[in-house]
Amino acid sequence: MPIFRSLFVAMRLWFTLIVLVLLFIAAYALPILFPLVRVAFVAFVILIGLDAWLLFRNQARRAVFARREVPDRLSNGDENPITIYLENQYAFRTRVEVIDEIPFQFQRRDVLFNAHLNPRETRAIRYELRPTRRGEYSFGAVNVFALSPLGLLKRRFQFEQGKMVAVYPSYLQMRQYELLAATNRLNEVGVKRIRRLGHSMEFEQVRPYATGDDVRTINWKATSRRSDAQGTSLMINAYQDERSQPVYCLIDKGRVMQSPFDGLTLLDYAINASLVLSNIALLKQDRAGILTFSSQVGQLLPADRRTGHMLRILELLYRQKTQFLETDFESLYASVRTHIRQRSLLLLFTNFETVNAMHRQLPYLRRLAKDHLLLVIFFENTELRSLLDLPASDTEQIYLKTIGEKFAFEKKQIVRELAQYGIQTILTAPQNLTANTVNKYLELKARGMI
């Protein structure tokens, strides 16, 4: 029967029952207590019946209402807000226990909330979930256990059965960077202000000189014409950033990108950074594209900046799956040479642990850098850095720190060797990847290299 499926016993009932059992045991030693214990037991049974009547007297409508509010999609690696709205339709003050059945991927068993609701009162319970994998997440029911003022029994209500939500790359981070870029506050997330070195060749307009303008851009002919008519007033040539430059994010999906950091893999960090960088490139009027690869070339989205292109990038990045095979840079080079004919900025997200690993791919990197502006982005081993910062207390730790220093030195050696061949590099911790990538893109753009 439905009434029994929704009936549960509260802790207060068990505690009271234990006390009564102890009193019955004591009554065998002191028979004078037996009549009093019997009266207490009868009263206890009556209170249970009264509590059940208070909770279940109206079966035609639900005496407690709940609704879960979840975004249409969750942002990978970010804290996503979840809200549960409660409404008490009982005629008395009710204590409720709320258990939200969140997706199993979170591996959490602590989503339990307690609240007291007055008659007709509405309340919102807010908490956050941080997914670390892309894909579909299934929410279960919102279980609400209502207790009357007696608190002996619970009545369970269930709402929001079976809701499926997709976890996309970090669009919340993308929106944050977009908002800060629009309000010129990117420095708040670690993006530096880049001073322009020289000028682009794309002329915009002739305008009056303002304090701080480069005197080398003074247009003396326009100044003389304006001075004749309106007195002395310097005029300068104003230039704008080069626009419509192709910017491609090349994302390595091989096994070197499966190392975890703070719950996310390096691949997910690269995907989140690619999403933000593509959006910034579109805001700068450049064209953004994506190319994924591992043992073979994956998906290619040609660089574009038409309406809806950002949504296509988001959908492509959402569908990327892990591959544990060795990365084939020869296939990458062949694909780039075939499909990317115009000189472009290539941001290659990969990882090299040793100099030998980089040397195996160096011929293909040099060929890519010959036709395009190549920026190789790889990762520091933050766990290794933590080991190196700790003092050594015994011989074993000295050996470990020596080996760690060797690996850390090889990372720096990779940067130096790539620089010898004119290849730009970023060696970054995973948590700083997005800010460092945007910084480098803006620096290259300010230097007129793209």
From TrEMBL:
Gene Ontology terms: biological process: cell division
UniProt KW keywords: Cell cycle, Cell division, Membrane, Transmembrane, Transmembrane helix
Cell cycle as UniProt keyword: yes
Annotated ranges, domain DUF58: 205-377
InterPro entries: DUF58, vWFA_dom_sf
Iron-sulfur found in the keyword field: no
Transmembrane segments: 39-56
Name listed for the protein in its UniProt record: Cell division protein DivIC (FtsB), stabilizes FtsL against RasP cleavage
